[in-house]
Design goal:
mainly alpha, 79% helix, 261 residues
């Protein structure tokens, strides 16, 4: 009995050491090394909650989403009300384009720990999942909440602009898109959506300038060149429009020109 107790004590000490070392390696973004440490902990204690969650996080960073989900699910079997794990699952589901599952997981996380909404990655992921499912009104509310928590979040501002564009509110969509561009000048989609907004406002020269900026940022994007082509045709530059359309078709021969503008 004494030997068993002694061995268990040694196992606990070793697990604490591996857990500490895993956290240290994670801080250095050495996720492969950290994963090995957490696996050592799980060798001694297969239901160790923190080791399961942290190992899942390492696999998530390495892009091994299926394995990460398995470990997160095991962690939730030990503690179903673990909000951070629900939130991490929500992000993985988003990356896998399983948007309804992403929304459900993040909603559970937010109910358990409302402060998670204030973390840019989670709030923005939630809003974008709603957008991907066509829930534009809900997405707009979520993007606005993300902006409220961090007014300098360019992606959230661009999301507000996109949602207003989708709802046909061109006048109000312009400012958040311009703010997003000011904060992140290399964010191509903000230029694309601003181009659509300005086109909707019949300000074609400005729309064309924004579209050309998007095409410069993403020269291999067929939508960029198709949009430039449409705007050039609207401003009477038919020859240049044809060149832009041809470039769009070269990049994506199967696309319908009208569907990508």
């Amino acid at each position: 009995i004494q030997t068993a107790a002694f061995n268990m004590a040694i196992a606990h000490l070793q697990a604490r050491w591996w857990l500490w070392l895993g956290r240290a390696r994670s801080k250095r973004e050495d996720y492969g090394g950290a994963l090995i440490c957490y696996q050592r902990v799980l060798h001694f204690f297969p239901k160790h909650l923190q080791a399961l969650a942290n190992a899942g996080n390492c696999l998530d960073h390495q892009g091994s989403y299926a394995e990460a989900i398995t470990l997160y699910d095991r962690a939730l079997q030990e503690r179903p009300d673990y909000p951070d794990v629900h939130a991490r699952l929500g992000v993985i589901f988003f990356r896998l384009q399983r948007h309804q599952e992403s929304i459900d997981s993040l909603n559970r996380a937010f109910r358990m720990k409302p402060s998670l909404k204030e973390e840019p990655g989670y709030g923005l992921t939630f809003a974008t999942s709603l957008a991907c499912l066509g829930k534009t009104d809900d997405a707009l509310e979520a993007y606005r909440a993300a902006v409220k928590h961090n007014p300098r979040n360019a992606r959230a501002l661009a999301g507000v602009g996109w949602a207003l564009l989708e709802l046909g509110n061109y006048a109000d969509a312009e400012l958040p898109l311009r703010d997003a561009i000011r904060l992140e000048p290399g964010y191509g989609k903000a230029f694309l959506h601003l181009s659509f907004v300005l086109g909707g406002l019949k300000r074609y020269d400005e729309s064309l300038a924004s579209a050309e900026r998007f095409a410069a940022l993403e020269p291999e994007n067929p939508t960029a060149h198709a949009n430039v082509g449409w705007l050039l045709s609207e401003t009477g530059s038919q020859r240049e429009a044809l060149i832009a359309y041809k470039r769009s078709v070269e990049l994506n021969p199967n696309s319908d020109r009208k569907s990508v503008v």
